[in-house]
């Protein structure tokens, strides 16, 4: 029996790709690092720190740990400013129906996101009190593709990994869910060939 659903946040509940892109692009331009939408795709689902490592792979010079910490903080400042634009109207199609149906069926639901801005985003879109558990990159040492975020979400829901479905838009998230021993629904073009148990272009078209 299916007991629980764990939703990724960015790209599943709400699309923040473009905000991340605008913020990273500002940092990249300032540091003379080539960066475009395609490279931004490599940052999907992974932590802020790992994202910076990937961005700086093309940098003309090396950076100290202290400089990296500062760049990550600056990026987040710009990103948080942009997130002010989010409203409940930005909730992606199909999300509210999934939540309502899960609740009708008595399934427990959680958010499992790498983002340390999860609480702020949920607040902006009016879903702060919707989920039975919210686990973020701030709660674990190892972010996706490690399974830790999803395992902690299952624990907080009181469900075993085999009872959980994970909904993800990023390859790193599918890897994390599989490593956790959970079933996966891939949503969107970036996970079409990532080995998810089920796949749909949008959450509105996906079925449990
Ligand atoms: C999500 C996004 C990633 C982002 C990560 C950390 O998983 O898909 O692109 O790097 O969260 O986000 P944060 O809000 O903590 O910087
Ligand atoms: Mg995502």
UniProtKB/TrEMBL annotation:
InterPro entries: B-phosphoglucomutase_hydrolase, Beta-PGM, HAD-like_sf, HAD-like_SPP, HAD-SF_hydro_IA, HAD_sf, PGP-like_dom2. It comes from the Bacteria. SUPFAM superfamilies: HAD-like (SSF56784). It holds the Pfam family Hydrolase. Belongs to the HAD-like hydrolase superfamily. CbbY/CbbZ/Gph/YieH family. This is Beta-phosphoglucomutase.
